[in-house]
Please model this.
Amino acid sequence: MSSRKLAREMAVEFLFQIEFQRESIKEQVEDFLDSLGEENFDKDYFYEIINGVINSQKEIDEIISNKAIGWKLERIAKIDLAILRVAIYEMKHREDIPVGVSINEAVELGKKFGTNDSSRFINGILGQVEV
Model:
């Protein structure tokens, strides 16, 4: 697994975790990274994703709300929401990452961490996002 791919996966896991406990995100990041030990991944990219998603969350969540017709954010599985947030952040703010790569990575993360329907749901939402 590439260092950036692993950083993306770790970011999704962390963003999922903070859905349940929002206080002291800085401390949670440190604890999360400590729990990984010497995992070899692009920590700079991990931090960029985390900070980018948190700082753009209102914009990202509005996009998800507009594209997930009939679904309120509260009803979307928390892991799917974390995956969507990372992918939309990349699609909107990272010109060096092709949109197709962000979508494919998100679909794969949905298959790995989500339900049987997650990858299809994620693909359907991301396919509607205008870049």
